[in-house]
Amino acid sequence: MSAEQAKKRTLLAVIGDEDTITGMLLAGIGQIDNDAGEDYKQKNFYVVDAKTTDEQIASCFDHYTIDRDDIAILLINQHLAERIRYKVEDYTAAFPAVLEIPSKDHAYDPEKDSVLKRVKRLFGE
């Protein structure tokens, strides 16, 4: 990645449940773009509810990690990352960095975190 490409990556993106997204928006991470010529608005957050399918979560994950070049860090609730674990485990690019976070109703389990698993492999644990 060139320095020019790295300068574009200025946003956090979040895939989470309603409480997580609400907290992040209150913290000021919300960004909605409506570029000229586009008929839709691009958001840097995606609310997952009981009706959201695994395919929709995977599609959003791909959109944030492949299609968007302005995202530096992607935060995803760990219990949602479990639903698309195959995508999270296969993702190896440096940017955006994918970090799993806890939610109000689901505790964080370091044994499931893909980043910590990679670190343990590096140190031979």
Automatic annotation (TrEMBL):
The family database entries (InterPro entries) matched by this protein are listed as: ATPase_V1-cplx_f_g_su, ATPase_V1-cplx_fsu_euk, ATPase_V1_fsu_sf
PANTHER family given in the database record: V-TYPE PROTON ATPASE SUBUNIT F, VACUOLAR ATP SYNTHASE SUBUNIT F
Keyword Signal annotated: no
Q: What is this protein's function?
A: Subunit of the V1 complex of vacuolar(H+)-ATPase (V-ATPase), a multisubunit enzyme composed of a peripheral complex (V1) that hydrolyzes ATP and a membrane integral complex (V0) that translocates protons. V-ATPase is responsible for acidifying and maintaining the pH of intracellular compartments.
Q: GO MF annotations for this entry?
A: proton-transporting ATPase activity, rotational mechanism
How the protein sits in the membrane? Peripheral membrane protein
Keywords (A to Z) from UniProt? Hydrogen ion transport, Ion transport, Membrane, Transport, Vacuole
What this protein is called in its record is V-type proton ATPase subunit F
Q: Give the NCBIfam families listed for this entry.
A: V_ATP_synt_F
Parts of the chain that traverse the membrane: none
**Coiled coil (residue ranges):** none
Similarity comment: Belongs to the V-ATPase F subunit family.
| One Gene Ontology cellular component | proton-transporting V-type ATPase, V1 domain
Cell compartment(s), UniProt: Vacuole membrane
Gene source species: Saccharomycopsis crataegensis
